[in-house]
Write a structure and sequence with these properties.
Calcium-transporting ATPase, transmembrane domain, Calcium-transporting ATPase, cytoplasmic transduction domain A, membrane, ATP hydrolysis activity, 16% strand, Rossmann fold, 7-stranded antiparallel β-sheet, 852 residues, alpha+beta, ATPase_P-type_domA, 32 helices
């Protein structure tokens, strides 16, 4: 609470006692400034970094799997088998890409700054000085003028019609009048008048910096693909140790036993075989391919003016089932435009259009009055003899012209209060008519006239003249984005529900929502919302539009929805949206918004076009569907590699591959094809359960391949086939079967898929036919019996994979969730009258595609 005592403003603070705020017009002296600097009472603020560079490097380099790969890599180098250490480059690429992603997220967060003004204007020793923001000290006297951004929290001590825009902080779009004793918050902007204020909170205690610090807490976007892969890698980590010991024992036994192998120096062959088995179990390429798919998706979106600040966000928006929209800057352009004039008086006094022209051209006109310039251009210059400037506290202004009486422009309910309007002639039904116009989402003003002159005394007292008569009702509206309706229609077609949360009047927000096709009969005043998150979540499930929402309430709404199992996207452009955008699964900011909002958002619409969101959803669904298809390739390899390790460990047979042979077959049947498949068009609609579906194919297919190779190896060993020929036959079987898995997962085979698969088949033939590659890979010519065994094993494996795929497709169809009728109805309610799109469609509406 602020109260005045003998020239000082006293600030009562709970727990801190009283502190006098100096209101001397000369401001602080140089000595007083130096004292405060010495005590650390400056505006210098270094927000803790979102995440240290070392922690990012440590998290991406010092992982369990990197440790395993590094140990295998070093072991092969130490025994002189560098040819079998090619897998090390994949691990290096994974580490670099993972670190790069997180450094990008860190850099965006560290650039967060709510205060853009390069300097602040203060009064010290009776003179004005421009000082750096960090050099503002406690009790400094700020000099505030139009266009300034407030550098620190302060108390107003002098005001000349001082008006501030606090929308970036609070979400309220109306300007706020500030009188002596009122608080001004750091980050707000002076839009009218002038004044001075004494700083009472600086640095970390200032409102803007507190909000900034809270928004800068580091977190990565939730990604089902990434979390599923991490969970899978965790499972593999548990089994790698026991399996590697099992394989090592089998290889040592196959070399004649531990003692003989060590004595004869054959232990290195056992180590190479064990490394081959271990490395094959780790789907390193899948992690790399996922990162590449995200990166390419981000590049594609960048060409559409959508900046992806964290790569997994491309996939994240594909999973969104509820999107929260801020009104200003998202559904609307954020500016006020003139709508229409509604005459009230049967015989309006002469010159009323000239008065409106004067209001629009007035240098001190606010944003609403400036909208009158275009419909009412100046045709006759008017010179006022007295005026009462507009103030948001009373919602009207007045001007008097010589011989022209008094003209008043303001809110109908303020110019003609209910207590007065009932008996005033010419005002019958005025308030009802004005209320009806306001309910349609339009801001309403009335121009009234009185024949009484506006005297200087009356202007000083800010009194309305008597015998006021309404002349015309003027309506203004926010400029609704032209792409908002069709974008909301697309979300309705795709099963994405919409909630609109704004800091503005709930009924105005509801009216604008109806204008863009949302079924919102009314808006909910957020001041009545429950604090309990469970109760809040239940209410938000039922209602669509919320107004007067504070920044913390926006965050609570997002939190409540996520607790109820929704995947939530949040759009906005003001600082008041930053906390909610940070809390959402996917935060989306407009380029025209604040730097705080853009820094914590996952996606930024660079040209502010809301219509880009359907394309972002489609791109995310393409990436998710392609990564699922690619993951089946890699996980099939992991499954058969694990199966081979266990089978050959139990059977005490030599492992049938060298690491380099596995590296090449992996590249031909998985690595190269996966790169192209991950980038191809794919319109499949997103369905949760990526890992379960992938494993339901990969594990049975891997078991089939492992059993066939084990059977082939046993039969070849019993037939007395040499080890190098046995390995060559195993490599051929794996190459053929791997290509068939690629064919199965690529169906339908058309276009570029034919080229890709054909190229890989030619590559498989080439590694046997070209002497240089055959020698490097230690591939030898196959005897007749080996060729027959390899061909028979390949055919058996192909038949088994076809059976697995047949069963898998039907199992996936049964696992696919159905959308409850209640949910469909709820979603349809957000965009009534929208025709159903084709099942499974992820493309934007035809209108969006036509615009490109």
């Amino acid at each position: 609470m602020l109260r005045r005592r003998t020239g000082l403003w006293w600030d009562d603070r709970v727990g801190t006692g009283e502190r006098a705020i100096d209101e001397r017009t000369d401001g602080l002296s140089a000595g007083e400034v130096a004292e405060r600097v010495a005590r650390g009472e400056t505006n210098a603020f270094e927000s803790p970094t979102s995440r240290s560079a070392w922690s990012i490097v440590k998290a991406n380099v010092f992982t369990l799997f990197n440790g395993i790969i590094a140990a295998c890599f070093v072991a092969l180098l130490l025994i002189g088998r560098w040819q079998d250490a090619l897998f090390g480059f994949s691990a290096i690429a994974n580490t670099i890409i993972g670190s790069w992603q997180e450094f990008n997220a860190k850099r965006a967060l560290d650039r967060l700054a709510l205060l853009h003004a390069p300097s602040a204007r203060v009064r010290r020793d009776g003179r004005e000085h421009d000082v750096a923001l960090a050099d503002v000290v406690l009790d400094d006297r700020l000099v505030l003028r139009a266009g300034d951004q407030v550098p620190a929290d302060a108390k107003v001590v002098a005001s000349e019609r001082l008006q501030l825009d606090e929308s970036m902080l609070t979400g309220e779009s109306d300007p706020v009048d500030k009188q002596p004793g009122d608080e001004v918050l750091s980050g707000s902007i002076v839009i009218g008048g002038a004044g001075s204020a004494v700083v009472d909170r600086v640095g970390a205690d200032a409102f803007a910096n507190k909000l900034s610090s809270e928004a800068k807490q580091f977190s990565l976007v939730a990604s089902e693909l990434r979390s599923s892969l991490n969970r899978l890698l965790g499972w593999i980590a548990w089994i790698i140790g026991p399996v590697s010991l099992l394989v090592l024992n089998a290889q040592m036994v196959a070399q004649g036993g531990w003692a003989e192998a060590i004595e004869a120096g054959l232990w290195d062959e056992a180590v190479v075989a064990t490394v081959a088995a271990v490395v094959a179990m780790i789907p390193l390429g899948l992690v790399l391919m996922t990162s590449i798919a995200f990166a390419v998706g981000a590049v594609r979106l960048a060409s559409r003016k959508v900046l992806v600040q964290e790569l997994p966000a491309v996939e994240g928006l594909a999973r969104v089932d509820l999107i929260c929209l801020d009104k200003t800057g998202t559904l609307t352009e954020g500016d006020i435009v003139f709508d229409a004039a509604h005459p009230v008086a049967l015989a309006p006094p002469d010159g009323w259009t000239d008065v409106l022209a004067w209001y629009g051209a007035d240098p001190e006109a606010n944003a609403t009055a400036r909208c009158l310039v275009e419909p009412y251009p100046v045709r006759r210059a008017l010179e006022p003899q007295a005026r009462i400037a507009f103030a948001s506290s009373r919602k009207w202004s007045a001007v008097g012209f010589p011989g022209g009486g008094t003209w008043v422009l303001g809110g109908p309910e303020m110019v003609f209060p209910a207590t007065d309007a009932a008996g005033a002639p010419g005002t019958e039904g005025l308030r009802d008519r004005a209320a009806g116009l306001a309910a349609s989402g339009r801001r309403t003003l009335v121009l009234a006239h009185s024949p009484d002159e506006l005297t200087a005394e009356r202007a000083e007292a800010e009194r309305l003249p008597r015998s006021l008569m309404p002349v015309v009702l003027l309506t203004f509206r926010e400029n609704v984005r032209g792409d908002a309706r069709e974008t909301l229609e697309y979300f309705a077609e795709q099963g994405v529900a919409v909630r609109i949360i704004s800091g503005d009047n709930p009924q105005t927000v509801a009216a604008i929502a109806r204008e863009v096709g949302v079924d919102a009969p009314h808006g909910i005043d957020a001041r009545t919302l429950p604090d309990d998150l469970d109760e809040l979540g239940e209410l938000i499930e039922r209602e669509v539009v919320f107004g007067r929402v504070t920044p913390t309430q926006k965050r609570d709404i997002v939190t409540a929805l996520r607790r109820r199992g929704h995947t939530v996207a949040m759009t906005g452009d003001g600082v008041n949206d930053a906390l909610a955008i940070k809390e959402a699964d996917i935060g989306i900011a407009m380029e025209s918004g604040s730097s705080a909002t853009k820094a914590v958002a996952r996606l930024v619409l660079l040209d502010g076009r809301f219509s880009h969101l359907p394309g972002v959803v489609a791109e995310g669904r393409r990436v998710a569907a392609n990564i699922e298809r690619v993951s089946m390739l890699f996980l099939t390899k992991t499954a058969y590699a694990t199966g081979l390790a266990v089978l050959f460990g139990v059977m005490l047979l030599p492992f049938p591959f060298l690491p380099r042979q596995l590296s090449v077959t992996d590249a031909l049947t998985i690595g190269f094809p996966a790169f192209f498949l991950a980038l191809m068009p794919n319109a499949r609609r997103y369905v949760p359960g990526f890992l379960r579906r992938s494993l339901s194919f990969a594990i049975p297919a891997g078991i089939v391949i492992a059993l066939v190779l084990a059977l082939y190896s046993r039969m070849a060993t019993d037939a007395g086939i040499p080890e190098d020929e046995l390995r060559s036959g195993s490599t051929l079987v794996l190459g053929i079967v791997g290509l068939w898995v690629l064919i199965v997962l690529s169906r339908p085979i058309d276009g570029w898929k034919i080229v890709i698969i054909g190229g890989m088949a030619i590559g498989l033939v080439a590694i046997y036919a070209i002497p240089l590659t055959a020698d490097f890979l230690e591939l030898v010519e196959l005897s007749e019996i080996t060729a027959v065994l390899a061909l028979a094993g390949s055919l058996v494996a192909i038949a088994g994979i076809e059976v697995v795929r047949f069963v898998h497709r039907r199992a996936v169809a049964r696992m696919a969730p159905t959308v409850p009728a209640a949910l469909v109805a709820a979603v349809r309610q957000t965009a009534p009258g929208v025709p159903s799109g084709p099942r499974g469609s992820t493309e934007p509406p035809d209108r969006s595609r036509a615009r490109g």
